[in-house]
Amino acid sequence: METPLTQHISASRPPLNLRDYEQVGGYQALRKVLKSMNPSEVTKTVQESDLKGRGGAGFNTGMKWSFVPMNDGEMTKYLIANADEMEPGTFKDRLLLEGNPHQLLEGMIISAFAIQANISYIFLRWAYKKAARLVRHAMDEAYAAGYLGRNILDSGYNLEMYLHTGVGRYICGEETALLNALEGKRATPRTKPPFPQVSGLFGKPTIVNNVETLCNIPHIVNNGADWFKGLSPGSDAGTKLYGVSGRVNNPGLWELPMGTTMRELIEGRAGGMKEGYKFRGALPGGASTDFLVDQHFDIKMDFKSVAAAGSRLGTGTMIVLDDRTCPVGFVHNLEHFFAQESCGWCTPCREGLPWTEKILLSLERGEGRPEDLKLLALHTQFLGPGNTFCALAPGAMEPLQSALKYFREDFERHINEKKCPWAKDHGTH
Amino acid sequence: MFWQISIGENVQVRLLFVLNMLTAEEITEIDHEIALVPIRRAACIEALKIVQQHRGWISDESLRAIAEYMQMSPEELDSVATFYNLVFRKPVGRNIILLCDSITCYVMGYEKLYEHLKAKLRISFGETTADGRFTLLPNACLGTCDHAPALMINNELYRNVTREDLDGILDGYK
Fold it and tell me: Are residues A23 and A43 in the same domain?
């Protein structure tokens, strides 16, 4: 089984420096691109590989690039790596950043070439201190070796790269909010259209791609679109970094073929539930995805199959709910996060999320009323897709609406028993 | 005296104000960031970070000085400063504890760590110990969920933290 993204990453060895990376074939894809491909050939190859965005939305990466205007002469364009990993339960980009930063840099340089951008940014989460140190060092090495800067490898192509570390807020991971943060503004999302591909950073054409997405690019260039599709037996191409966290025996992160089943992830890789704990459900790809439950164990974890089961693959890092954790408390924790992280720009999100959080808290305190469940269900509609500028509030409603569906009895018990049945397991709320 | 060089009285006074408030070192660092962006104000978050790095937090006086230098109104800059949770608009302690309160750490029992910290330090989230040694803040997912619960103190990440570990960890920070 091939694991292109993580094949050189191991806890027992230090991260790859430039020489290590070159010794295992690093920057060969960039050489190939600059020597023998034009920008549209790169975009076409990536589009044909069917690489879909690994940040959660799952849009075809090459197609995203193809919307960038290419006949505007010397126009400034930007390529941005979204390394603002902050989706609760998600810890995949950290591994790529800390384990092999040059892989990201090479992916970025090739991607920037494909859209003919001359300026690139890595928007890195402040908390990733080790990653910041390693990425900065890798950038210095890449500049010194002529992979960045002016006239890269004598090709005539120029690219500058900057590292921007943020100062907090989940919403910065939303691509248009990220652009506002880079412009020194409050990170509120922008209305689309115009899409960033046409009018992005400082009003110039901009591509924002997730770290894992960009790390795939050198391998697709080296091995071709068909190879990439062949990595997965399912309907989506490539490998995926899958994670499992919660009360399992072996929480962790694994690069596996796209479409690996939930059973393989939880029972196989994660070693099943810890003794004394039973599986109740899981958010398949971060906090803003709908619960999957027992009946979904054999579903392939790819974009299409997870969507067919009523959820989203999201970031592919799964959070497990066990039988000794209160489902209402679990969802309350999520809604507290979303209410806190709402940027406040649009009303349904700014007002609706705190209401949702308060209702869930009152249920947890044994102060819930029967009509509260109807109110919560109404919120999942008011805050649903189409009513807000960005996906934060609709995402926040995904775990809530599916919890109301799969764990309804537990919500009702809070109301009928006038207390949280799990209170003794989980301390205070 | 250099402020008598006449460009216009108002301009002079404002210039002096800035020079009084930002140190030469801060200005050098901010200028470096300004040079990298096409619009001066785009560097304002970097400017806030730089001043906070030097002073620990952003006081009203610091905010006004930065705003002046960035050619923004103080209100405009404050709307940016207050948006980001790691720009501190109140004084903080010498060491900042960021305890992850997101979902996997919830499942894995961060609340027990919080109870312990509250009892030991006698502060709740958002507060600073009387001796100025620690500020305790909740923090969203630290991205290390396979090693939950987790917390950061200043630039250090601690993973798989137990109540028993906490005292030893805190002892390392004076």
Answer: yes
Q: Average pLDDT for residues A70-80, to the nearest whole number?
A: 88
| DSSP letters spanning A48-62 | HHT-B-TTTT--BHH
CB A113 within 8 A of CB A119: no
**Residues 29..88 of B with a Cβ closer than 8 Å to A: which?**
36-39, 41-46, 48-49, 79-80, 83-87
Helices (H), A267-407: 303-308, 327-341, 347-364, 372-382, 392-406
For residue A318, is pLDDT > 80? yes
Judge whether A378 lies within some domain: yes
Query: CA–CA separation, B27 vs B35, rounded Å?
Result: 12
CB atoms B83 and A343 under 8 Å: yes
Give strand ranges (E) for A234-368. 239-245, 252-257, 279-283, 317-322
H or E segment and range at residue B127: strand B127-128
> Hey, is A206 helix, strand or coil?
strand
Domain containing B9 equals 2-81
Q: Indicate yes or no: CB of B38 within 8 angstroms of CB of A202.
A: yes
Phi first, then psi: what are they for B93, rounded to 5°? -75, 175
Backbone φ and ψ for B133, nearest 5 degrees, come out as: -80, -40
Quick check: is B87 in a domain? no
Look at residue A84 and tell me whether its pLDDT is greater than 90.
yes
Confidence tier at A295 by pLDDT (50, 70, 90): very high
* Secondary structure (3-state) at B86: coil
Quick check: A87 and A56 in contact, CB under 8 A?
yes
Q: Give every CB contact of residue B163 below 8 A, 6+ residues apart in sequence.
A: B112, B113, B116
Do B104 and B141 belong to one domain?
Answer: yes
Does A76 map to a domain?
yes
To the nearest 10°, report the CA torsion of B47, B48, B51, B56: -160
Q: What is the pLDDT of residues A136-191, one digit of tens each?
A: 999 999 999 999 999 999 999 999 999 999 999 999 999 999 999 999 999 999 99
Residues A102 and A117 reside in one and the same domain = yes
- List chain A residues with CB under 8 Å of B46: 184
- Find, in chain A, the residue whose alpha carbon is nearest to that of B108: A246
Mean pLDDT of A402-417: 98
Domain of residue A266: give its range.
239-322
The CATH number for A113's domain is 3.40.50.11540
pLDDT at B7: 56
| ipTM of predicted complex | 0.95
Residue B88 lies in a domain: no
Question: Of A230, A263, A291, which residue is a domain's last?
Answer: A230
* Domain contains A3: no
Residue ranges in chain B modelled with pLDDT below 70:
1-20
Higher pLDDT, A424 or A316: A316
* Residue B148 CB partners (closer than 8 Å, separation 6+): A245, A251, B100, B104, B105, B107, B108, B110, B159, B160
| Structural domain total, chain B | 2
Helix (H, G, I), strand (E, B) or coil at A291: coil
Among A149, A151, A152, A88, which residue's Cα sits nearest to residue A120?
Answer: A149
| Out of A169, A183, A243, closest to residue B42 by CB | A183
